[in-house]
Design brief:
InterPro entries: Peptidase_C15-like_sf. This is Pyrrolidone-carboxylate peptidase (N-terminal pyroglutamyl peptidase). It comes from Ferrimonas lipolytica. Keywords: Signal. This protein is an alpha/beta fold. It has two domains: 124 residues, no CATH class; 237 residues, Peptidase C15, pyroglutamyl peptidase I-like (Aminopeptidase), CATH 3.40.630. It is built from 13 helices and twelve strands. The strands form three sheets. Strands 2-3-1-4-12-5-8 form a seven-stranded mixed beta sheet, with helices on both faces. A three-stranded antiparallel beta sheet has the order 10-9-11, with no helix packed on it. Strand 9 and strand 10 form a beta hairpin. Helix 8 packs across helix 13. It is globular, with a radius of gyration of 21 Å.
């Protein structure tokens, strides 16, 4: 067994005070075996995190230090992808490895459970880039982009997500459009219903809408055969698919259900309309067709909506983005902007899907996505 594998398995050593592992973390053992070339890539960053954590005797600063190490993990993965290693899976699995270790081990004081929960949340967000969104004062056009974790891992534990690779590849990127400097900052979103119900998307986006501190918000996920610009997100969940914690919402095509926000049903119209400059974005060159997708499903059947008013008095089953979290992130993002009176263009892009890991396809997807973003930025 390699030193990397031994280190990975050592993280799983149980202790008397260990917190239980969730479903995502439990998959890690299989990932170590089946994805030996993927897991452990960021072992030095995890070792540094654990070394500082185990030696820390200051309960007032330990969470801050762990968050710093989470941010370092994110930045290492960003640099890795931007240097040509187009793979999002190492960050996903090594983040879980770090979480497992933080659950299994103690700092140099007796940490109680509520402290550990706060520490894990701080690490989680930092390792997803949430604390790394910093726009250059010299940037004229500021774009916030979200990607998603790999998902459907019980079908294929080696699955990658092009939207996650794009988030890593584009984080901090700047380019010139005439006299304007464009900057992209990104974060990675978990594929977990509970995080959405707990208000993750609203807490992320509220400051940017409130302060008008970005010029465009793009949510991105893996979808169908080509690129789809999702014109009409729907309110309800309907996909009979589990999230990465194997959670089923109970929603289905015949029983669509609304999501929640902080313990209450999320109220809003059945459908909303995105505000991206889709006509110019569709012209971005590349191997994939870029669709302006207006196809939705209501309780009365399928509709190709020519306008939002065409959907008046309809009950949503699927938005143009489907009935899963990719549709939901766009619905929440658009709705929040409307509630806050924002004019920031916002909308969702579905990338072409890939089976497992396909480096050539991922590079082509990311390259064409860059062109779409540049085309959209040119309108701002």
């Amino acid at each position: 067994m390699t030193a990397k594998a031994l280190f990975a398995l050592s993280l799983l050593t149980s202790t008397a005070f260990a917190a239980p592992m969730n479903i995502e973390e439990q998959r890690y053992t299989n990932a170590v075996t089946e994805l030996a070339d993927v897991t452990g890539r960021y072992q030095p960053q995890i070792e540094q995190l654990l070394g500082r954590y185990r030696a820390d005797s200051n309960e007032l600063t330990v969470t801050h230090k762990v968050a710093e190490d989470g941010k370092n993990l994110w930045q290492r993965a960003v640099n890795d992808v931007r240097s040509g290693h187009f793979d999002d899976r190492s960050l996903y699995w090594d983040r879980l490895a770090a979480r497992i270790a933080l659950k299994q081990q103690q700092p140099s004081f007796n940490m109680v459970q509520w402290q550990r929960d706060i520490l894990l949340t701080s690490f989680e967000k930092a390792s997803r880039g949430f604390s790394d969104v910093k726009f250059d004062p010299n940037s004229h056009v500021r774009i916030l982009l979200t990607g998603f974790d790999p998902f459907q891992l019980d079908k294929n534990i080696g699955q990658s997500n092009p939207s996650g690779v794009a988030a890593l590849a584009l984080d901090g990127m700047t380019f010139q459009l005439g006299s304007k400097q464009v900057q992209i900052e990104t974060v990675m979103i978990p594929v977990r219903f509970q995080d959405f119900d707990d208000g993750l998307i609203e807490s992320l986006l509220t400051p940017y809408y409130r302060d008008s501190s970005v010029d465009m918000i793009l949510t991105v996920s893996m979808g169908r055969d080509n690129f789809d610009l999702e014109h009409f997100p729907g309110r309800n969940r309907s996909a009979a698919a589990t999230d990465n914690l194997q959670i089923l919402t109970g929603a289905s095509q015949t029983q669509p259900l609304p999501p929640h926000l902080n313990g209450k049903v999320l109220h809003g119209p059945e459908f909303v309309e995105f505000s991206l400059p889709y006509q110019v974005m569709q012209q971005a060159p590349g191997p994939y067709v870029i669709n302006d997708n207006r196809n939705v499903v209501t309780t009365n059947g399928k509709v190709n909506a020519t306008s939002l008013s065409r959907l008046d008095d309809s009950v949503s089953v699927q938005g143009s983005g489907g009935g899963y979290l990719s549709n939901e992130i766009s619905y929440r993002a658009v709705l929040l902007g409307q509630l806050m009176g924002s004019n920031i263009p916002v909308g969702h892009i579905h990338t072409p899907r890939i089976a497992g890991y396909d480096e050539a396809a991922i590079k082509a997807i990311v390259s064409q996505l860059e062109g779409m973003i540049a085309a959209g930025a040119a309108t701002l």
